[in-house]
Amino acid sequence: MLFRTAGQFKTSYLKDQTLFPVRQDAILLGIILAFAWVIFPLTASEFTFQTLLIPVLVYSLAALGLNILTGYAGQLSLGTGAFMGVGAYACYKMITIFPEMNLLVAVLMSGLFSAFIGVLFGLPSLRIKGFYLAIATLAAQFFLVWLFEKWAWLYNYNASGAIQVPHVEMLGTPVAGPQAASMTQYYFVLVVVTLMTILAINLTRGTQGRIWKATRDMDIAAELIGINLLKSKLTAFAVSSYIVGVSGALFVFLWRGAAEPNLFDIPISFRILFIAIIGGLGSIMGNYMGAILIVALPVVLKTLPETFGIPISSATVEHLNVMVVGALIVFFLIIEPHGLARLWTLIREKFIIWPFPH
Amino acid sequence: MNDMSQDGYVTEDGRQIGGVMMEMKNITLKFGGVVAIEDISFDIREGEIRAIIGPNGAGKSSMLNVISGFYHPQEGEVWFHGTERPAMKPYEVARQGVARTFQNIALFEGMTVLDNVMTGRLTHMKSGLLSQAIWWGKALQEEVKNREVVEKVIDFLEIQSIRKTPVGRLPYGLKKRVELARALAAEPKLLLLDEPMAGMNVEEKEDMSRFILDVNDEFGTTIALIEHDMGVVMDLSDRVVVMDYGKKIGDGTPDEVRNNQDVIDAYLGVAH
């Protein structure tokens, strides 16, 4: 009943191509945005900001980047963590070399560095596909993390070998570094994530999106209808790595505050791949759903027993978390390979025709 | 061959066929030691329906792949619109106005019918990444303009009711039609059809034949097709090339080919 689409007619192609042909979707998104922009920041505690809100946004942005490459263009990548690292280190170098630089500009520019590196490591994609390409991107993963460790210039010859986010102000308010308030950081991340999401939605629903999807679904046919496969794949690598790089910069500057090279090692690549798979490959919305699940799960597992008065050690929570995430991935691969996003699509379709079964 | 001048000829049903659009000159294609196509020459004329037939393994599909730039022949020349075509990538050939369908359906299964047909318009879309990302200006105009063309094709092939259905859910016959729609959306000068009727029942074949004739009639599209159903080939095509074991054994109107002794031998076998 709520989702009834009767009476919503489209009288021009322009209207048919709007983002939300069904009015209720727009309303639903409005509610979600209201929560993200107003209600959460007003009610969240320091703990919620740091363990839930900011990480969800950062991880979903990284998953969004990976999803463009893997879900839309069909190129498997295991190098996400390293590309995040490129973004983070690029941002760090820019901010330390030019302390007066606007952080927003620095964050958006750091994506360009990872886009460039992403394209370089994407070059083999014309020749190799699937798992073999995944192995090639794994090379990027190991090489880049090794570089972060060995190239002392990257971390300004810091004795600890880690990068420490300096104090950065924007319009007189500290946004990064130890003095920054969580709410400021949250809004900063939210602005970037919203911007990236809009761009990604537009890219994936238009010509470029069709080029990517055609490359993914049937590359030979794609080439024979006039798609330059190399260009299509490299564009996917560039756009994907750009977004991943930006998320890496946010990851360190607006959330962690410091980073060691091994932070960008393979576990984070897998983590983001899991988010993309659980959320749904080839879906924008899925990234947020997947990130919420992956980030919120440990918190819920930790706080739920506490509220019921069941004593549970943090080590147990850690183990429980690993087991539940593992089980979920297996569950999703069997039950719904297209992830949470597809689940929502099915529910939505049911809602539209409710109370009739067909 | 009958009275064919350089400027074309008139078919039995009175259609005027133009000059040579594509000419294959002494094409030889080898895969290692296997000779798939041996020294074949033929031409395709403006506005014509040209069939390539032959028993299995004769090299018909390889020929189509040479035309669409997927294979590069070791010897011979491909002439298109009066100039020799250099070795091109398939996507460059597509941009010259050659579209095709595939023997085994090659649609983009994860996309809707509409999106699949829209990909056929890619050769006509030029907006930049930035314009697309902000969904404004040139990209938006292009999207709407090309949608109009695509809708015409969808109307033409009578697939309006499934335009928003994911292709993966469609039955075989409709997929074939969507594939034709995708090729037509490119507004090709030359349309290559690789076994458009394969695996269809009589009704579907009749529908498809009607569409092929209509495409040729209404848009004046030149069509080269491979087909195994002899009834269809003889009815539809203006001229037929017959191949066997990589060689050309016959070329002419359906009637000429039907009475060609080599062709009869190839299809029915000869007593030794």
Automatic annotation (TrEMBL), chain A:
<feature type="transmembrane region" description="Helical">
    <location>
        <begin position="268"/>
        <end position="301"/>
    </location>
</feature>
<feature type="transmembrane region" description="Helical">
    <location>
        <begin position="76"/>
        <end position="95"/>
    </location>
</feature>
<feature type="transmembrane region" description="Helical">
    <location>
        <begin position="130"/>
        <end position="148"/>
    </location>
</feature>
<feature type="transmembrane region" description="Helical">
    <location>
        <begin position="308"/>
        <end position="335"/>
    </location>
</feature>
<keyword id="KW-0472">Membrane</keyword>
<feature type="transmembrane region" description="Helical">
    <location>
        <begin position="52"/>
        <end position="69"/>
    </location>
</feature>
<keyword id="KW-0812">Transmembrane</keyword>
<feature type="transmembrane region" description="Helical">
    <location>
        <begin position="234"/>
        <end position="256"/>
    </location>
</feature>
<dbReference type="InterPro" id="IPR043428">
    <property type="entry name" value="LivM-like"/>
</dbReference>
<protein>
    <submittedName>
        <fullName>Branched-chain amino acid ABC transporter permease</fullName>
    </submittedName>
</protein>
<dbReference type="Pfam" id="PF02653">
    <property type="entry name" value="BPD_transp_2"/>
</dbReference>
<feature type="transmembrane region" description="Helical">
    <location>
        <begin position="186"/>
        <end position="203"/>
    </location>
</feature>
<feature type="transmembrane region" description="Helical">
    <location>
        <begin position="101"/>
        <end position="123"/>
    </location>
</feature>
<keyword id="KW-1003">Cell membrane</keyword>
<keyword id="KW-1133">Transmembrane helix</keyword>
<feature type="transmembrane region" description="Helical">
    <location>
        <begin position="20"/>
        <end position="40"/>
    </location>
</feature>
<dbReference type="InterPro" id="IPR001851">
    <property type="entry name" value="ABC_transp_permease"/>
</dbReference>
UniProtKB/TrEMBL annotation, chain B:
<dbReference type="InterPro" id="IPR003593">
    <property type="entry name" value="AAA+_ATPase"/>
</dbReference>
<protein>
    <submittedName>
        <fullName>ABC transporter ATP-binding protein</fullName>
    </submittedName>
</protein>
<keyword id="KW-0067">ATP-binding</keyword>
<dbReference type="InterPro" id="IPR027417">
    <property type="entry name" value="P-loop_NTPase"/>
</dbReference>
<dbReference type="InterPro" id="IPR003439">
    <property type="entry name" value="ABC_transporter-like_ATP-bd"/>
</dbReference>
<keyword id="KW-0547">Nucleotide-binding</keyword>
<keyword id="KW-0813">Transport</keyword>
<dbReference type="InterPro" id="IPR032823">
    <property type="entry name" value="BCA_ABC_TP_C"/>
</dbReference>
<dbReference type="Pfam" id="PF12399">
    <property type="entry name" value="BCA_ABC_TP_C"/>
</dbReference>
<dbReference type="Pfam" id="PF00005">
    <property type="entry name" value="ABC_tran"/>
</dbReference>
<dbReference type="GO" id="GO:0005524">
    <property type="term" value="F:ATP binding"/>
</dbReference>
<feature type="domain" description="ABC transporter">
    <location>
        <begin position="22"/>
        <end position="270"/>
    </location>
</feature>
<dbReference type="InterPro" id="IPR051120">
    <property type="entry name" value="ABC_AA/LPS_Transport"/>
</dbReference>
